[in-house]
Write a structure and sequence with these properties.
Elements lengths: L2 H4 L12 H13 L4 H5 L4 E2 L6 H9 L3 H15 L5 E2 H8 L3 H18 L8 E4 H4 L7 E4 L2 H12 L1
Antiparallel strand pairs: 1-3, 2-4, 3-4
């Protein structure tokens, strides 16, 4: 697809309540660097939303590829709350191939929107260079102490 085709406008229907957020996202994307590494990132950050233990338990027990894969990631993150793990590290520590991890993260928002009233992710991710020098140009994920405790409690049930 040519650059001109990529910049063509297309109609997108969104609920009015999300219109300002969509405009903000478009402005953020337009101002982002366009080098290959940054372009590969679907977004550069997502802040964790605290989930109740019961909802985390339900997520952990849901037998979808998304929840099983993200559950493995949460297990790793919960073992070391506050520590950022790159996608490469999570691939190694979970045994889940990178394409499957990327697929699960891509599907996570849809899963949450469908089953959990669209609340945010239960973990935080940042694009490595935003965290500082020494972080590779890939997504990094972390759980807070509180969310890690809740996840471990949900898993123990």
């Amino acid at each position: 697809m040519s650059a001109d085709q990529n910049d063509a406008l297309v109609p997108v229907h969104v609920p009015r309540r999300y219109l300002s957020a969509v405009y903000g996202l478009i402005a953020k994307l337009d101002s982002a660097p366009t080098d290959g590494a940054q372009a590969e990132a679907e977004d550069t950050e997502a802040e964790e939303v605290t989930w109740p233990v019961e909802d985390l338990r339900r997520f952990a027990e849901t037998p979808t590829a998304t929840s099983v894969t993200i559950g493995k990631v949460l297990d790793v993150l919960a073992a070391k709350p506050g520590e950022y793990f790159s996608t490469t590290q999570l691939e190694q520590l979970t045994g889940v191939p990178r394409p499957n991890l990327k697929g699960a993260f891509s599907a996570l928002t849809r899963h949450i929107n469908k089953h959990y009233d669209g609340r945010g992710w239960m973990l935080t991710f940042w694009w490595g260079p935003q965290l500082g020098a020494g972080y590779p140009a890939e997504a990094h994920y972390v759980l807070s102490d509180e969310q890690a405790t809740r996840w471990l409690e949900a898993r123990a049930a």
